[in-house]
């Protein structure tokens, strides 16, 4: 008995020592503080900028779970007109009324192979297309670059006339959720607004994007092409101060035109659409064939939607491609396999996001080029969380022309992650973005540069070889804890979500 007690005591002491050693190895970024209550607070720089809160991204800003929508129609493949019978079911469902949750119902595709020579189009709200896992296979047969599944409303945001107000603060810092405006009379809590950050000639000049090294086909940046439109909702009004639901992710400065807000409508945008649990495949002729299925799933002009449990194989461009008018979309547990195309520009963007307030999480990409990537003038916040890239053919990160406010959180790749001035690549990619944050990521090589003006980019707790980037004389980014294990919290996105929702 005494011997057992001694062994138990030694085991306890050993566990205690190991625990203390592990705790001693943990560290916290200088950009945040962890309080006794367990919540994070954010340490401002001299201008007042902080790490923004990324917790309100994805389906209903993370406030609602993705619903289990009742199936109202079941289909099985017939090998004769699979595309037509699925499209007919979608069109029939689109004529039905939506329920209180905005849903019409789900179409269940039973196990089997469905041959799709064209594109399946979902253009109405409240429709879910669901399979029975990998045994429900949709094959883009034949030739022609196309989307296999297209989710798309119509129109674009429309400004409400006479609703503009000037932001009067000389400087609105990154992370801010309020600002002073010239006139609040036309606004009320709950209004959907655009926060406009104008492009100006001085800003382009200070970024040196009017002097990109010349090459054939290159286009220097022009101020009128770089207005940024951030979709927000008013949560409170106090005096002349307007509060918004999601933070400012790029500072607004009077020297660069400041900012404005205005009310908007988007009548053609659809919502409550889901693509779930299926295998999507493209026919192809060779490893470099490009005359075949291009996007497995494409979404645009849609909000509060999701793509879950989808595997794509052999498509030339993407597994999931989120267009510039996609908002509050969650992409989760999806896999991109064996794309077929040339390995060069404009191909193999496995999970591409050009929208805002979107979340891509728990995904895998193999043999892609830019696996977790944003395009030009992408207005965040956006999050890529807990995603992996294998056999990468190019880098992860903002791709070109100024993406704003992206968190890359626990991204693992056997390739590179780069946030940099891409110079004259393409037709003048230039500065890829600002307020781009790598948190607890792993890669072979990582480059993080700060633009000359308008903010910073961050590499926090990155495990990789640090490289200078394509253009060597650019300002270095903000680095902290390079190749240092034990960053706490392990995930910034999950911790921010926990803090906001008050649950672990």
Automatic annotation (TrEMBL):
Cited SUPFAM superfamilies: Pectin lyase-like
InterPro entries xrefs: Pectin_lyas_fold, Pectin_lyase_fold/virulence
Keywords: Signal
Endpoints of the signal sequence: 1-24
Protein's name according to its UniProt entry: Pectate lyase superfamily protein domain-containing protein
